[in-house]
């Protein structure tokens, strides 16, 4: 006698049948799966678009960060905190090289993107260093130099100019005057103007061979001889200004050219210019001229 199992009385578990009916049968289940797939596809598409936007933003933003991060320390702290600019430069360079060679270390699909990003960061780093050094040499170094240089008050124009080679601001005695009749404009691309500074007694009677150690100077503020309008020269309450004692100490004033102009003016007026003559940019507010280096 053989035994055969009988399945005529088999019934599906209630929970399985209920779950199948909840999906609306086979057709309903397919629609649910299709809807879920569409949801994930849309979500992935949104993520891809967001990733592309982030990549573009990084491609623009990161080189700019490298440029600013390198330029500012070189421009502002190269003199006082010398190690800081070089450390920032090294970090920015390492970052650029890392991005550029990243596809060689890790297999990535978009290798061109990383190479462009790395190259852009390296170029921005070089530009930041160059511009930062330019700003330091041309502007901020002079601002700091004037900041640590002494100011002198009530100086006689007949004093030995060599004692004031490190001056930032020179205020002369109240009887000091600029002799505009002996001024001269020397053309070297621009007109470099010079005029001797005398004390009251010397101004009244200038003798041949008089040594003039202090000269008022300016650029494009005179014409030929006897017409000097560089600063408030006619203001009797102004007796000094900003000292120009080193070559290239200000962006627009060339010390060597002023020396040539002073020698030409002295030759025509039978005066003598010492080798350590001091040139002064006449001003009622010389500290404002110093602040211009920072602006």
What would you note in describing this structure?
- By secondary structure, this protein is an alpha/beta fold.
- The chain has two domains: 44-147, no CATH class; 151-291, no CATH class.
- It has helices spanning 14-22, 25-77, 83-105, 111-148, 200-204, 255-268, 286-291, and strands spanning 151-155, 169-172, 177-178, 184-188, 190-198, 210-211, 214-219, 240-244, 271-272, 278-282.
- β4 (184-188) and β5 (190-198) form a beta hairpin.
- The longest helix is centred in the N-terminal third of the chain and has 53 residues, at 25-77.
- The chain is elongated, with a radius of gyration of 39 Å.
- Compute the separation of the termini in Å: 111 Å
Helices and strands, in order, run as: HHHHEEEEEHEEEHEEH
Counting DSSP H or I runs of 4 or more residues, the number of helices is: 7
Tally of DSSP β-strands: 10
Form type: elongated
- Our estimate of the beta-strand percent is 15-25%
| Low-pLDDT segments | 1-8, 16-21, 42-47, 247-252
Average pLDDT rating? 78
- Which structural class best describes the helix and strand composition? alpha/beta
**How would a textbook summarize the main sheet?**
8 strands, mixed
Q: Over all CA atoms, what is the radius of gyration? A: 39 Å
Give the count of structural domains.
2
Approximate helicity band: 40-55%
């Amino acid at each position: 006698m053989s035994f055969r199992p009988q399945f005529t009385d088999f019934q599906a578990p209630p929970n399985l049948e209920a779950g199948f009916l909840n999906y609306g049968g086979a057709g309903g289940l397919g629609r649910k799966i299709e809807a879920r797939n569409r949801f994930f596809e849309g979500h992935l598409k949104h993520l891809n678009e967001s990733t592309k936007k982030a990549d573009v933003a990084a491609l623009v933003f990161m080189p700019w960060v490298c440029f600013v991060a390198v330029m500012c320390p070189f421009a502002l702290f190269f003199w006082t905190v010398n190690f800081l600019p070089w450390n920032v430069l090294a970090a920015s360079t390492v970052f650029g090289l890392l991005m550029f060679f990243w596809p060689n270390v890790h297999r990535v699909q978009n290798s061109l993107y990383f190479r462009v990003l790395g190259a852009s960061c390296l170029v921005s780093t070089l530009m930041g260093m160059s511009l930062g050094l330019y700003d330091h040499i041309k502007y901020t170094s002079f601002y700091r130099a004037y900041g640590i240089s002494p100011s002198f008050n009530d100086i006689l124009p007949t004093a030995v100019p060599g004692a004031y080679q490190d001056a930032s601001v020179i205020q002369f005695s109240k009887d000091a005057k600029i002799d505009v009749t002996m001024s001269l404009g020397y053309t070297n691309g621009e007109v470099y103007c010079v005029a001797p500074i005398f004390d009251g007694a010397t101004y009244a009677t200038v003798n041949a061979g008089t040594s003039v150690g202090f000269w008022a100077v300016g650029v494009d503020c005179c014409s030929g001889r006897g017409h000097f309008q560089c600063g408030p020269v006619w203001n009797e309450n102004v007796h000094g200004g900003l000292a120009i004692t080193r070559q290239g100490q200000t962006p627009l004033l060339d010390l060597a050219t002023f020396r040539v102009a002073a020698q030409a003016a002295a030759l025509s007026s039978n005066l003598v210019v010492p080798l350590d003559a001091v040139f002064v940019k006449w001003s009622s507010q010389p500290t404002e001229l110093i602040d211009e280096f920072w602006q």
